[in-house]
User: Fold these one by one.
Assistant:
Number 1:
Amino acid sequence: MSEILIHIGLHKTATTSLQKSVFPNLEGILYHGRQSGSFVGNGDLYEKVCGFCFGSKKYTLNEVRDSISSELTKGRFLISDEWLTSDYDGLFGYKSGRWQKKIERLSSLINGFEHKILLTIREPLE
């Protein structure tokens, strides 16, 4: 089975640079993540995964898991979004709540799939 890689930020850890210059160019890994400043227009799977995690009623658990399964037939892929680790709940009109709830929703999506979580951090004083 192929593997899901999920990059969850944190903010101010070069996430935008990774999303624009590194992740799209990784060999053998399909990239699904923010490629512009907006949440929309970045691809169906990305919007479904993040929309579900942020609390959109538009996407159901089974619908998103089916999309993940379908994408895994193409190979390994990576999803990146630093807002999964933010408490801000006004993002794109969703009332997504605390970051713990977003991670809980993400967990329900990837449960049972082979996956790795990538977390970028930095020294707070830098």
Note: The longest strand covers residues 4-7.
Number 2:
Amino acid sequence: MSRTTRIVRLRRRTFGKRRQGTRASLRWLGGIALALVSGITAVTITAWFVGTAVYTTLTADLPEFDQLSQVSETAVSPTQLLAWTDASQTQTIVIDEITPPLNGQRRWLPLDAIPQDLINATIANEQPDFWTDEFRLWSSDQNTIIQQALRHSPLATRHSPLKEQLLAHRAFNSYSREQILEWYLNGRYYGNLAFGAEAAAQVYFDKPLADLTLAEAAMLAASSAETNPIDAPEDAKTAQETVLAAMVEAGWISPARMQAAANTRLQIAPSASDNTRIIAPHFARYARQELARLFTPEELLAGGLRVYTSLNLALQSQAECAARAHINRLSGQIGPALPADELAACAALDYLPPLDTAVLGLDQRVDNTAVVVLDAKTAEIRALVGSVNYWQEPFNMAVDGRRQPGTAFTPFTYLTALSQGYTASTMVLDIPTDFATGGEPAYTPQNADGRFHGPMRLRQALGSGYHIPAIQVASWVGMNNVVNTARNLGI
């Protein structure tokens, strides 16, 4: 056999051995692949069974979502706010009642009975892609309409967040979007104990839901416990305009209709506490705000609570008459500060300091005031006057007013001075002074009596409540130091 032939044969023989090894390798790899596929399939099937079992277990006790339309339709008794009639706190009287809208009934409306403007405004405000979006079970977005429909409903209080998510997922896959939207609009909390759009329309606009205008529907769509036309009218107006703009962007209304609605002056219904039967109305409204902070809307909606407040009506009547009398005096009124029948009952008048003769009979252009009387031991509110006349000025200056502290802050100024080495006998000048610095406009404050009193000791300036010496001392010690003193004392 020639060398060449042997080489060829050897090569062929070698090639044949390699093919046999490759086939063996392929069979070996195929076996591994089959095992892996079988294992993966087994794991997948096992995971599916486990997942199904877990899902079934978690959802076993979930209610049907359509139970939302079967919530309580029965009337409830109102929540009563009581105040003490005497200092001994032995007798009480009802000063206000919280009656849920529609007497606590949940009036359910089918979707075709709800104005289209409200439907569009709600979708534009809450979830513009509502008609096309797909519900993702583990999505980080927790504010879809389906989730809010559940969150605002009584069902939400019965289950953990995980089960609420599963319930929302089940509902999304079981019911139409129209049904989900109907549940949302009838179950959502709009503030002021109004659950559902029908109750909210009555609370905020004193009319049936079917009669709402576009302007009202847009404001209602954005209303909540924090932002609504009764408790926060300016915020509610801003939210309304945002909703109208979103409706234009979605193509539901024209820019001209948006502008017309935004310019419409709305007639807002009076607050539920705005009735002539209420006693100490500013305090009663403040108590309502505290109740809303302490209790859920569902708890307040249930009604039947008897709330014993700290108000003492004997002190309250004295605070009210003293406030009226003082305003009358500052307006330049000559003679008795109150009518004869009120004058005899207003013992607090004896504690009002007399006016300086220089201002008697002169109108000081002061037309409002506020009074708060606190128990020195417990800090409880015993009397509260938010304005001279609630029915003419419902704004509560005592609670909601952001005002300068005035002479109430001067003790911290003088205390700071004493801590820096000044003494009660340090001399200060109560004379016309311009305190402007650094090119600022002139700042020449006046005293309350309109006069200047010349040189005096710090003790006299503090005791008399003169403005100019207090500002002068603050400039000596530094306003930042005065603020630090107040903070160190808990202010």
Note: Confidence is low (pLDDT under 50) at residues 1-19.
Number 3:
Amino acid sequence: HFSLYYLAVPSLGLAFIAASAAALSRRSGWGGLALCSVFLAFHFYLAVPFNRATTVWHFERGLRIRSLVEGLERAHELHPGHVIALAGIDSELFWAGYFDRPYSLYGLAETCLVPGSDRSIDAHPELGDIAPYLCSPSVLADTARQGRLAVYAYEGPYLRNITRQYVRQNAPRWNSAWPDFIDVGLPSYARYLGPGWYDIQGTFRWMGPRAELTLAAPPAPGAHLSIGGYCPAEHLAVPIQLTVSAGGLVLGRRAVTRDNTSFSFDFPLPPALAGKPSMKVDFAVDRTVTPPNDGRALGLVFGKIVLHAPPSNVQAPAAGH
């Protein structure tokens, strides 16, 4: 966590020197005391307005985050079991609070930002990726058809329900979409999972020896696939080798060891997959573990799988190629 405000730490030394000078000025007569008073007055003249402005900024930003989280809590009470999609989240609100998923404190796992929200959020790769926070259009389509979708717009200190308006405007373009992001631990993505997955446990799923799912294919060459997961250290006395394939093509192999029990792997996607409507992604492990009193052959725990589109200046392949 790199923050510029750490550069203010050396100013503590200057404060100690100034405080010592102020204490010594009492022994220097009226002249020294007057000089010290002028210096301190000049310091407070500069520091107080700046400190007040900074405090007000943090306070007002905190109020925005608080209103968002409390609004989500209320939306969850009104729509239990629904996917809550948010519109109107700007860059400051996202990075200052939403990025850290404070809504999870209220049991809100199925909360996401409406597609296209990333256009109003500044990218900060050094902090994290925005893509896993975005709703998949295909998931919105499914949950809307099931009556499990609630869309809210953040408007100042309030959340406004815009579900009916949003669905009416966007439903036609949802129907043929495949997701470019899957969280295997959320029920809304279950229909995109193939054989090989066990039931959800909390916010994740175990895979067996093999498992598969279906994602949108990359629109153009240059895309890559990110996967995240976990394996308990007690299962890793011997490393587990994970093989990932997409569209029948092996993307690569990675080892999960006690040094990376929480793993995140990235795989470039072959150009041959570009331009297709979807692709099947396969996961295979070279061994499984069957815990006592469980009976399941467990491979790895998975969470999020994300297709990262290529840069916008890369052209999609022409039809027929």
Note: Confidence is low (pLDDT under 50) at residues 313-321.
